[in-house]
Amino acid sequence: MLSVEDARERMLSGLPLVEIERITLDRCLGRVPASFCVTAAIDVPPFANSAMDGFAVRAADLPGEPFIVGEVAAGAGSLPTVEPGTTVRIMTGAPMPPGADTVVPIEAATELGVRVRLPDAPIGEFVRAAGHDTRVGDAVELPAASLGPAAIAVLASLGIGEVEVRRRPVVAILSTGDELVVPGEPLGPGQIYDANSVSLAAAVVEAGGEPRRQAIATDDAALIEQSLREGSQGSDLLVVSGGVSVGRHDHVRAAIEALGELGFWRIAVQPGKPLAFGRVGGRPVIGLPGNPVSALVTFELFVRPMLRVMQGLLGDGRARVVACATERMAKDGDRRAYLRVRLTASEDGYRAEPAGGQQSSQLRPLAAANALLIVPEGVAAAERGHRYEAIVLGALA
Ligand code: AMP
Ligand code: MG
Q1: Whose CA is nearest to atom 6 of ligand 1?
Q2: Disulfide engineering: 323 pairs with which of 134, 217, 252, 350, CB 3.0-4.6 Å?
Q3: Is 92 touching ligand 1 by the criterion CB < 6 Å?
């Protein structure tokens, strides 16, 4: 059996980067920029402006009772000059008028008709200098991550209206199994609903990819081959679920071998031991176990990093913490387990309690979990009171 790290390394090695496309800023949430560094073409802010509603004045005139000679609002193009002994009403974000070097907030001022009483203030108070956030020519580093609202705001403030990002990797998704029925249709005897098509498509979207769902394939060798061939056309990656094990109706590994090459298929991971990786039509194909929990956990461990690498990112983009198990949770001694837990922050660190049963057919505990607790190979359980690393999947309680 391969370790999780060895399997992941093999899956990630030689993966191509997807191409770059240019899109408008309003469409780039969650997209990965082609470059994480942009050169500022302007100062931000482009001009000195007021941080408060108040009076723009010369600090040398403070304290004092200057004459009010005008008003400047945000967006003003022509500006009155502030001569000695005068002041100008100014609004937040309005350009500093020539002559003024300080702003006294309206709350500190006492209006006296044509004059205003202003207290003392240090020179430059409540003035935002031109370029105090960014200077023209600065190398502006973006986080090495997909674009979030704040990074988008930085780009917008620099006047960038279009950005070069990686195309979304297209992922063909194929569920296999004679028993599977599309949710919403009636169930016949022996049938269950196909949970994986939609869950894996959602996980692809979360990882920045573009899912392309195929019709469910029954456990028929020829049909599975045909579906894999179709899936490999126009996609960057194929994700198949079910049919990768050693049962008489498991045809996925043989189909991959027939169409391309099968790399490996046994990984020391729980859930998810039978997992196939290979290539079809030059495209990487991964066959995940059919159990919905196993399918999603192995997606997290292997497919999510693949989609990130294809977009120019590293790792899985998840936070990790160390957490103390609140009770014993049994596992397979030979394999590394990823237990579905609820993580809570307590005074003495994070605590991990089981989010429910740990069988790979028990889907609701995965939905209730906000973390996967990593319990190493070679032990039969997570022991109560022992500390383990956890992958944080959702908000902490
Ligand atoms: P398999 O990997 O094909 O041996 O399937 C393992 C278990 O997962 C079986 O109980 C299947 O019925 C179930 N299963 C397989 N595919 C799906 C799916 N798409 N949705 C829900 N359960 C599935
Ligand atoms: Mg099956």
Answers
A1: 290
A2: 350
A3: no
